[in-house]
């Protein structure tokens, strides 16, 4: 991944450190949070239906499933790799669950099959990238076709329906009042990934690998193993998302989650993760998830069609990255 | 001689011939000249786009916006044709080339002047271009009966038994073969991808070269936009959706290194033909078209594995594992 795009600005070391307060104020996360608040305020002025607890709760479904994958993807991108096959893993995991439905495996069985399929797919990607030493962007463009292709082979133009009613809790259930199960899961996963990336040796290793894989190897980090685990994690998260999405929709089709990989990468990059690896934070991704969810939901309330929202998302992605660079050019 | 025989291109030619022979042994109608012309014509858009994408990948970039560019330019051409049915075809083609190049230039400027990673830029413009199609067309389709016969007839007109669409693919391949292998610009593409730092010292402007690659890729995408819309006689928001990855796949199968600097146009073209044969042969052989995605996916994975094996030189240093890691 780090090979694509040579235009990396050099990482200059400052001659003295900034004070933590100034640094926090000037950080990407603060900028993003300001954007999120601005969108929230604009939304509440533009639509009278926006400020409603149930409405806001509904809005979270726009991003919770994608964000779950985005957390794992963030770690992978920090480590200098990428996984474009995540949406196809959702399709395959969902297909596997639908297939298992015919054998009366029960809710626990369905969940295990969803997670297991995700892990197997992630492991396959991980093996190709770390075992054979192939570039992840190409590998996952290939497995993206492969995994969804298998769904097409199994399903054709058919679909699976008839998931048990207890299963639908994962996508439609509420834990307390308007707090949905998916939102709780999102929050828990955000916390887990925050701890994993920012508070453990494993997280340190991920940053080290993204900044300098050779240096990391010489520092005693098992680079290939860490990367393999990261691919397993994105696979697993795709399995989790597949369970939530399938439960929410109540059906499986081979076109499920089509095009999500690009939205997830957009979310991660918008969250301040450097696409070339080495830097970024989980709180950034969390705020980016809210920004994307708020934008699409707000526009939806204004009856803006989904495809037009994509213009806003695209401009947001390029704009948020371009603005600081324009600013530094203008100041120079 | 041995080098030619061992090359990726020779391997692909071999695989394509073997695949065709295999299909022909059970279904002789497949190698009927008329059918082969059909297969080639069907593959022509992929070939034209693969040529542009190959140039972009050579310079260490990637253009994910080609399919969106194609769809937007195609829609603009179709709407122009509806509004001004008398507009001559050369004018339409000029519009397609210029608009396509302009959309490519937007990618190029962002990569060159703002040094945003190409994958991020083209992810963004991909969604923006698709959205713009909806805005200008209001989500409506432009159908066959609204287009003028000259507009839809052009790519299908036959010269010496081949449709114009196929001729354009051949012409594109020929022109860019010369550009890549016989001009300073072509050298620059390889130099920038092979070693950007060395390229700077050789007096090559890396950013500008990448910009040029994006403009060329955009121009070809625009041209394909008109040809696509005219050939299928329909324009709507979702045409060629997801096609960008098939184009990248053709390049990768053809041996264009994703890390830039290595590979040939011929390889990319053969990669496109390989995918085209698979797509066209499945219905003939009686395999459900639902298998197509999985088969091309498997082909990509296998081809990448081959690429890596071919490109791995034996290191002389003691810490060989470290070197392999650094490459991965």
From TrEMBL, chain A:
<feature type="transmembrane region" description="Helical">
    <location>
        <begin position="99"/>
        <end position="120"/>
    </location>
</feature>
<feature type="transmembrane region" description="Helical">
    <location>
        <begin position="228"/>
        <end position="250"/>
    </location>
</feature>
<keyword id="KW-0812">Transmembrane</keyword>
<dbReference type="GO" id="GO:0022857">
    <property type="term" value="F:transmembrane transporter activity"/>
</dbReference>
<feature type="transmembrane region" description="Helical">
    <location>
        <begin position="284"/>
        <end position="301"/>
    </location>
</feature>
<protein>
    <recommendedName>
        <fullName>Autoinducer 2 import system permease protein LsrD</fullName>
    </recommendedName>
</protein>
<feature type="transmembrane region" description="Helical">
    <location>
        <begin position="307"/>
        <end position="327"/>
    </location>
</feature>
<dbReference type="InterPro" id="IPR001851">
    <property type="entry name" value="ABC_transp_permease"/>
</dbReference>
<keyword id="KW-0472">Membrane</keyword>
<keyword id="KW-1133">Transmembrane helix</keyword>
<feature type="transmembrane region" description="Helical">
    <location>
        <begin position="256"/>
        <end position="277"/>
    </location>
</feature>
<feature type="transmembrane region" description="Helical">
    <location>
        <begin position="132"/>
        <end position="154"/>
    </location>
</feature>
<keyword id="KW-1003">Cell membrane</keyword>
<comment type="function">
    <text>Part of the ABC transporter complex LsrABCD involved in autoinducer 2 (AI-2) import. Probably responsible for the translocation of the substrate across the membrane.</text>
</comment>
<comment type="subunit">
    <text>The complex is composed of two ATP-binding proteins (LsrA), two transmembrane proteins (LsrC and LsrD) and a solute-binding protein (LsrB).</text>
</comment>
<keyword id="KW-0997">Cell inner membrane</keyword>
<feature type="transmembrane region" description="Helical">
    <location>
        <begin position="174"/>
        <end position="196"/>
    </location>
</feature>
<keyword id="KW-0813">Transport</keyword>
<dbReference type="GO" id="GO:0005886">
    <property type="term" value="C:plasma membrane"/>
</dbReference>
<feature type="transmembrane region" description="Helical">
    <location>
        <begin position="31"/>
        <end position="51"/>
    </location>
</feature>
<dbReference type="Pfam" id="PF02653">
    <property type="entry name" value="BPD_transp_2"/>
</dbReference>
<feature type="transmembrane region" description="Helical">
    <location>
        <begin position="71"/>
        <end position="93"/>
    </location>
</feature>
Automatic annotation (TrEMBL), chain B:
<dbReference type="InterPro" id="IPR001851">
    <property type="entry name" value="ABC_transp_permease"/>
</dbReference>
<dbReference type="GO" id="GO:0022857">
    <property type="term" value="F:transmembrane transporter activity"/>
</dbReference>
<dbReference type="Pfam" id="PF02653">
    <property type="entry name" value="BPD_transp_2"/>
</dbReference>
<feature type="transmembrane region" description="Helical">
    <location>
        <begin position="119"/>
        <end position="142"/>
    </location>
</feature>
<feature type="transmembrane region" description="Helical">
    <location>
        <begin position="213"/>
        <end position="235"/>
    </location>
</feature>
<protein>
    <submittedName>
        <fullName>ABC transporter permease</fullName>
    </submittedName>
</protein>
<dbReference type="GO" id="GO:0005886">
    <property type="term" value="C:plasma membrane"/>
</dbReference>
<keyword id="KW-1133">Transmembrane helix</keyword>
<feature type="transmembrane region" description="Helical">
    <location>
        <begin position="247"/>
        <end position="278"/>
    </location>
</feature>
<feature type="transmembrane region" description="Helical">
    <location>
        <begin position="66"/>
        <end position="84"/>
    </location>
</feature>
<keyword id="KW-1003">Cell membrane</keyword>
<keyword id="KW-0472">Membrane</keyword>
<feature type="transmembrane region" description="Helical">
    <location>
        <begin position="162"/>
        <end position="181"/>
    </location>
</feature>
<feature type="transmembrane region" description="Helical">
    <location>
        <begin position="90"/>
        <end position="112"/>
    </location>
</feature>
<feature type="transmembrane region" description="Helical">
    <location>
        <begin position="36"/>
        <end position="59"/>
    </location>
</feature>
<keyword id="KW-0812">Transmembrane</keyword>
<feature type="transmembrane region" description="Helical">
    <location>
        <begin position="188"/>
        <end position="207"/>
    </location>
</feature>
<feature type="transmembrane region" description="Helical">
    <location>
        <begin position="290"/>
        <end position="310"/>
    </location>
</feature>
């Amino acid at each position: 991944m780090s090979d694509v795009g040579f235009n990396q600005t050099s990482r200059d070391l400052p001659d003295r450190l900034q004070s933590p307060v100034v640094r926090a104020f000037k950080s990407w996360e603060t900028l993003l949070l300001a954007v999120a608040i601005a969108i929230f305020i604009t939304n509440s002025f533009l639509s009278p239906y926006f400020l409603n607890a149930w409405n806001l709760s509904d809005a979270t479904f726009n991003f919770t499933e994608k964000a779950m994958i985005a957390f794992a993807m963030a770690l992978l991108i920090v480590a200098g790799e990428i996984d474009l096959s995540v949406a196809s893993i959702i399709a395959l995991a969902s297909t596997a669950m639908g297939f298992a439905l015919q054998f009366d495996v029960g809710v626990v069985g369905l969940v295990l099959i969803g997670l297991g399929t995700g892990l197997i797919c992630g492991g396959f990607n991980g093996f190709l990238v770390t075992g054979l030493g192939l570039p992840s962007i190409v590998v996952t463009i290939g497995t993206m076709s492969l995994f969804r292709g298998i769904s097409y082979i199994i399903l054709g133009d058919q679909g699976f329906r008839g998931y048990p009613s207890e299963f639908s809790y994962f996508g439609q259930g509420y834990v307390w009042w308007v707090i949905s199960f998916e939102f709780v899961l999102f929050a828990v996963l955000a916390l887990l990934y925050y701890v994993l990336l920012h508070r453990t040796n494993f997280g340190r290793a991920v940053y080290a690998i993204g900044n300098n894989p050779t240096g990391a190897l010489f520092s005693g980090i098992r680079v290939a193993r860490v990367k393999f685990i990261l691919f397993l994690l994105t696979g697993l998260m795709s399995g989790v998302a597949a369970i939530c999405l399938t439960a929410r929709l109540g059906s499986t089709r081979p076109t499920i989650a089509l095009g999500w990989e690009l939205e997830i990468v957009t979310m991660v990059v918008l969250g301040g993760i450097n696409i070339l690896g080495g830097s970024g934070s989980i709180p950034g991704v969390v705020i980016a998830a809210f920004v994307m969810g708020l934008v699409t939901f707000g526009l939806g309330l204004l009856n803006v069609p989904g495809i037009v929202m994509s213009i806003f998302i695209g401009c947001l992605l390029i704009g948020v990255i371009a603005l600081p660079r324009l600013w530094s050019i203008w100041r120079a | 001689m041995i080098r030619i025989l061992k090359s990726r291109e020779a391997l692909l030619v071999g695989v394509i011939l073997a695949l065709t022979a295999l299909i022909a042994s059970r279904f002789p109608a497949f190698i009927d000249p008329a059918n082969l012309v059909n297969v080639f014509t069907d593959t022509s858009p992929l070939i034209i786009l693969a040529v542009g994408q190959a140039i972009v990948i050579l310079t260490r970039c990637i253009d994910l916006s080609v399919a969106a560019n194609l769809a937007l330019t195609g829609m603009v051409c179709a709407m122009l044709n509806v509004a001004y049915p008398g507009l001559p075809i050369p004018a339409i083609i000029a519009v397609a080339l210029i608009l396509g190049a302009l959309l490519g230039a937007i990618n190029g400027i962002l990569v060159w002047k703002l040094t945003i990673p190409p994958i991020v830029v083209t992810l963004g413009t991909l969604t923006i271009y698709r959205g713009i199609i909806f805005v200008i067309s209001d989500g409506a389709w432009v159908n066959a009966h609204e287009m003028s016969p000259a507009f839809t007839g052009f790519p299908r007109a036959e010269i010496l038994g081949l449709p114009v669409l196929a001729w354009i693919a051949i012409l594109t391949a020929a022109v860019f073969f010369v550009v890549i292998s016989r001009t300073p610009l072509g050298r620059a593409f390889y130099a920038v991808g092979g070693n950007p730092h060395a390229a700077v010292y050789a007096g090559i402007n890396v950013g500008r070269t990448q910009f040029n690659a994006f403009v060329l890729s955009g121009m070809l995408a625009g041209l394909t936009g008109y040809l696509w819309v005219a050939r299928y006689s329909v324009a709507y928001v979702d045409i060629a959706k997801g096609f960008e990855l098939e184009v990248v796949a053709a390049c990768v199968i053809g041996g264009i290194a994703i890390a830039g600097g290595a590979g040939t146009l011929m390889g990319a073209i053969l990669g496109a033909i390989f995918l085209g044969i698979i797509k066209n042969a499945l219905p003939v052989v009686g395999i459900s078209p639902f298998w197509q995605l999985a088969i091309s996916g498997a082909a990509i994975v296998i081809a990448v594995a081959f690429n890596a094996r071919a490109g791995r030189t034996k290191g002389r240093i003691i810490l060989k594992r470290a070197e392999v890691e650094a490459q991965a």
